[in-house]
Design a protein that fits this description.
By secondary structure, the protein is α+β, with helices and mostly antiparallel strands. It has helices spanning 2-5, 73-89, 147-150, and strands spanning 19-27, 38-45, 47-49, 56-58, 65-68. The model is unreliable at 6-14 (pLDDT under 50). Belongs to the TfdA dioxygenase family.
């Protein structure tokens, strides 16, 4: 994710090895999808490796990332709120998709945070269907390059 490689990254130089606690809304659990929706909680590295590119990617989301393991809530909130603001406030790492009839959008949830803009009220009906695959478990590899390193942008 671009914010992982930006000039304004986490104030903690150790962010690559930080573990975050994530709490999701009701979803199907990858370990037992036939059991129906349930509340899922997981601990994951704050930086994950994207399996297709092998690059490091910052993996935080205001809706799901609740705290950093090993920090008290106040300290965790300071760092997470900073990281959330990096994602939400930098237009150079955002894509805007304006829906029109018969259009579709597809993205990789492993490296993308999405947020719908509710700007279509009173217009033509809009329908959305979420298709989610059972992906691999997020992991961290200290030897993996960042996107900037892999592309030779870190002079």
């Amino acid at each position: 994710m671009a914010s992982r490689d930006g000039k304004t990254t986490s104030p903690a130089n150790t962010r690559d090895t930080v573990i975050a606690w994530n709490s999701n809304r009701l979803y199907l659990d990858r370990n037992d999808p036939e059991a129906g929706p349930k509340h899922i909680e997981r601990e994951h590295s704050l930086v994950r490796i994207h399996p297709a590119t092998g690059w490091k990617a910052l993996w935080v989301n205001r809706s799901f990332t609740k705290r950093i393991v090993g920090l008290d809530q106040a300290g965790s909130d300071v760092i997470l709120n900073y990281l959330f603001s990096v994602h939400e406030g930098n237009i150079d790492i955002q894509v805007r998709f304006k829906w029109t009839p018969r259009t579709s959008a597809l993205w990789d949830n492993r490296i993308t945070i999405h947020n719908a803009s509710w700007d279509y009220e009173g217009r033509e009906p809009r329908h959305g269907t979420r298709v989610t695959s059972l992906a691999e478990e997020p992991y961290f590899d200290a030897s993996a390059p960042s996107r900037r390193q892999a592309l030779g942008l870190d002079g």
